[in-house]
Amino acid sequence: MKGTNLGEFEELVLLTIAALMNDAYSVAICDELEKRTDRDVKLGVVHAVLNRLEEKGLVKSKLGEATNVRGGKRKRYYSITSAGKASLLKAKEVRDQLWSIIPDLALKLNV
Amino acid sequence: MSYTPRPPRWATRFLAWYCRPELLEDLEGDLHEYFDRHVKAKGVRRAKLIYVIDVFKFFRSYTVRKPEFINLLIHWVMIGSYIKTSGRSIVRNKMFSTINIFGLAISMSVGLLLIAFLADLNSYDRIHTKGDRIYRLIDTHVNKHHGKSIELASTSVVAPRRIKEEYAGIEDLVLMRSGFGGDAEVNDKVVPIEGIWSDDSFFNVFSFKLLKGNPRTALKAPFSIVLTEKEANRVFGDDDPMGKTIRMKDDSEKGFSEYLVTGLMEDPPKFSHIRFGALASFATLDILKKNEEYFLEWQNVWSNYAYIVLPEKSSTEDLQSYLDNLAKTENEKMPDVSITFTLQPFFDIALGKDLSNQLGPTMLSSVMWIVSALAVVVILSACFNYTNLSIARSMRRSREVGIRKVIGALRSHVLAQFIAEAVIISFLALVLSFGIFLILRPAFLSLSSELSNLVTLDLTPSVVGYFILLAVIVGLVAGILPALFFAKIKAVQVLKDVSSIKVFKNVAVRRLLIVAQYTLSLAFIATTMIGYEQYKYFIAFDLGYKTDNILNIRLQGNNPDVVSKAMQEIPEVSRISRSIMVTSTGSYYGNMIKYQGDSVDISYNTIDEHYLPIHGHKFLAGTNFRYQQKGVVEHQAIVNEKLVSRLKMGTPDQAVGERFQIDTVNYRIVGVLKDFHYGKVDSKIDPFIFKYSNEDVSYLNASISSKDWIATMEKVEEAWKKVDPIHALDAKFYSDKIQESYNQFQVMVKVIGFLAVLAITIASMGLLGMVVFTTETRTKEISIRKVLGASEGSLIYLLSRGFILLLLVSAVIALPLTYLLFTNVILREFVYTAPIGMFELFGGLVGILIIAMIMIGSQTIRVARANPASVLKSE
Questions:
Q1: Chain centroid to CA B99
Q2: Any idea what the Cα angle at residue B310 is, between residues B309 and B311, rounded to 5°?
Q3: Would you say B241 and B259 are in contact if contact means Cβ atoms under 8 Å apart?
Q4: Which of B131, B430, B631, B874 is most deeply buried (CB count within 10 A of its CB)?
Q5: Average pLDDT, 10 consecutive residues per value, chain A (111 residues)
Q6: Which residues are in the Transcription regulator PadR N-terminal domain (chain A) (predicted)?
């Protein structure tokens, strides 16, 4: 099914939303991602991903209060749904399992 | 207060337009936030740019609003309603509808003519299946001495042959030459035929269909001829022409050549720039002209035509660079001229650039652009009328729109309704204009024989399709502004108080439209009148010699002595002279003369001893020619004043007896004439000479005095028939011939005159509509004024003042512009012009003012005379 697997960037965005808690709106997510991943994150990309995540039912959103910054436009705050939480956990689990079966030796030699 | 930069409004609006409403607010906010950041970091200008780019970047599948199905469905369902309400509105406002339909129809008829004309031109030469790969070799001929260059449609014989031999990258090349023809003798019958010479590639390059004969060999052997069906029918009747011989007179030793008919082909279509009755094999010319060195010279580029077929999927670049090289090496060998080659795409010939020596009828694309622009102006003018009137009526219609909106119509519905109404009106106009088109068509074609030779203006399905397209476009253009205006109306505001609608915001625009229309009308009418005045001046121009009652008879190859003798028997013919050409009609015979180390280009005419007295030329010195037998020892010349002064021969008396050379022949000046105009008014007088000959002439100039011209012409015709039963008489009076040579000017005057009538009609209708509207909306005001004691005169003045002022404004713009256009541009082309008179300039203005006064007056007087009691009581 489409909704069960997370893309790499989707996962990052989802994690950021979870991390930012009550302040997760598009521009903040963008800034946070840029800070953490050290790569150029485009607003357009984040927007598209947020839209897709909402369609998949992994996040939900609501409009905040109007302020006099942003040309008087309201922010759309995102929060993670339980389905989103589950898919994050599942992704982590898959990774952990994979990590656990890598022999120590193999990694050390390659680094 | 500090200034805070804002993102560009149009970009924000664009975003709002395409973005789905549920995503919009957030997205707008985000972009705004980024904008503020960028303003701080990179400055306002960069920030705005980034904002705009971002807005376009967000145009993605998930952000774009989906067209609402239900909305489309409503439009579909409502079409019937739109048509019905539009019909009602058209019927209810008969006056406005008539003005609109009539105005649009008149202007659209011009559009229809233009469409039919362009369609005809575009269907030229389309029968040739290789047409998009065919190029015509055209030459630019430059005189190295004075740098004069001519662009020619023609080329030499040798250049195409070299190309065909040396250059491997072409599929085929056909070489043709104009001027085949003459009297064909078959058995005892003599039939004049006309055609072209062509080599055997003809049927491979072109798609003309050969009905009988072998397309590959029909034009191979010398003295082969291919006839078109029409020509074959004329020469042989119903007999099969194949294998028969035709005897044609020519300059060969025998005096004639016999041609074998090797093919029968379909007639070339009307829309072909290559037209002919017969094709003769080019190989014949190699035999006939084997003693003529000039025939095969590189610079003999005057009557041959080469069409090259390139292989599929190849470009002209390689061939062009080969041609450039070829021209370069050959030009180095020639001391006097240089010739360069260009390739002209086959389909750009019929409607293309200005070339000399065209093979068939063509039209300049630049002329078509100008005419099209004029037509667009006229049509737009009528569209403005519609816009103008519809917005003027907005007070009446806005309540209807208000109700519609309350019931639930969206902006797009109102928009659609008003555009539908405009399109319906434009279709009604189309019907009417089609009628006008049918009436105009024969008048247009008869404007000049060149036009009727070029186009037929017949209706084809695609032409009808374009007519309908024109109606739709006119409807859209005319209807879009009113529709937008009505769509913006807010229901609450309208229903509360109609007068709160700000119609007057558009008053300036409407005034501007009226001024523009009248400016155009005035300019057209002044142009027509000035142009006509010039035309009259041109044809009545004092040429410095007599042209009255002189009939120029073209000899068409007959012996001048014989024709002259036959004509002299007619009692009305008093005197007859001979000449090689008819001067002052736009044709020139030119040459160069040398005189004591100096040389000058001259024009000349060859005449006999009667010519100068008959035409009343005035001698300043010396004498007329005397009769001389052929094979004279001394060549004599009579020159004009300009030649004497140009070659510094002193006084006219001193010039008599001087000698000059043409080529290697010595000429002695026996007389000097007062300067006269041998050219048209667009050229000034330059050195000119008369040479003497009794035999080498092409025209007889018969001086006729008669009371019954028709009977005299019949006698001339009869006399001609006795001498030459084969060719029809070609005789024209000198003054008619001069008039004919200014025919183009006359056609221009007629066309612009027609446009002037159109423009005035359209402008008048627009004005009438406006006046009716103004008077109707001010009826109450006028009545109150009247009650308070205003006189009828002052009321009429009050109502008309504004309109008259507008007309005067247009006059102030139009008349000086027209005057300047004529004095600085158009009349610069001519050397001798009539002065522009007050009447031509202001006559049109007076006429238009009178028409306008009648229209304004008829409406304002009615309102001013109305009984205030009945007006005020009714509401």
A1: 30
A2: 120
A3: no
A4: B430
A5: 70 90 87 87 87 88 81 86 90 89 70 48
A6: 16-88
Task: With CB atoms and an 8 Å threshold, state whether B30 touches A74.
Answer: no
Percent of chain B residues past pLDDT 70, beyond the cut: 97
Q: Does B53 lie in the same domain as B142? A: no
Q: Which two tokens stand for residue B781?
A: 């005001």
Return the ∠ at Cα B220 (arms to B218 and B226), rounded to 5°.
35
Q: Of B17, B35, B57, which residue is a domain's last? A: B57
Highest-confidence segment of A62-71, B116-125, B144-153, B819-828: B116-125
* H-assigned helices in B269-364: 283-288, 317-333
B337 phi and psi angles, rounded to 5 deg: -130, 160
- The answer to whether residue A48 neighbours chain B at the CB level (below 8 Å) is yes
pLDDT for res A2: 47
Question: Would you say residue B828 lies in a domain?
Answer: no
Is residue B851 a part of any domain in this protein? no
ipTM of the complex: 0.85
Partner B contacted by A26 (CB < 8 A): yes
HSE-CB of B121 using CA atoms within 13 angstroms: 19
SS3 percent helix, strand, coil of chain B, rounded to 5, is 55, 20, 30
The residues, ordered by sequence, that sit 6+ positions from B760 with a Cβ below 8 Å of its Cβ are: B521, B524, B525, B848, B851
CB pairs under 8 A between A and B: 48
Same domain assignment for residues B488 and B582: no
Q: Which domains does chain A have, with CATH numbers?
A: 2-110 (1.10.10.10)
Closest Cβ–Cβ partner in B6, B32, B57 for A73: B32
Are B25 and A63 a contacting pair at CB < 8 A? yes
Of A52, A69, A75, the CB nearest to B26: A75
Domain holding B579, by residue range, is 550-741
Give Dmax over CA atoms of chain B in angstroms.
107
With respect to residue B520, please indicate whether it lies within any of the assigned structural domains: no
- The closest alpha carbon to B229, from B279, B176, B283, belongs to B279
What's the rounded Cα separation, in Å, for the pair B639 and A65?
Answer: 101
Of the candidate ranges A9-23, B171-185, B583-597, the one whose mean pLDDT is the lowest: B583-597
Q: For residues B77 and B135, state if they share a domain.
A: no
| Residues sharing a CB contact under 8 Å with residue B856, sequence separation 6 or more, in sequence order | B767, B771, B799, B800, B803, B804
- Residue B672 tokens read as 């000097």
Number of domains in chain B: 4
Looking at the fold, whether B649 and B687 belong to one and the same domain comes out as yes
Could you give the CA distance from residue B840 to residue B545 in angstroms, rounded to a whole number? 29
Given a cut of 90, whether residue B204 has pLDDT beyond it is yes
User: Which of left, alpha, beta for B457 (phi over 0: left; psi -120 to 50: alpha)?
Assistant: left
Q: Share the mean pLDDT of chain B.
A: 87
Distance of CA B266 to the CA centre of its chain: 31
Asked if B531 contacts B748 with a C-beta cutoff of 8 angstroms, the reply is yes
Q: Which of B7-21, B65-79, B419-433 has the highest mean pLDDT?
A: B419-433
CB contact under 8 A, B26 and A26: yes
pLDDT for B260 equals 93
A85 in reach of chain B (CB within 8 A): no
pLDDT of residue B612: 93
Is residue B753 situated within a structural domain? no
Assess whether B575 and B658 both reside in one domain: yes
Domain boundary pick from B696, B712, B741:
B741
Six-digit token string for B518:
């009248």
* Closest listed residue to residue B691, CA positions, set B658, B666, B654, B725: B666
Same-domain status, B392 and B476 = yes
Q: Which helix (H) or strand (E) holds B256?
A: strand B256-265
Residues B196 and B257 in one domain: yes
Same domain, B613 and B737: yes
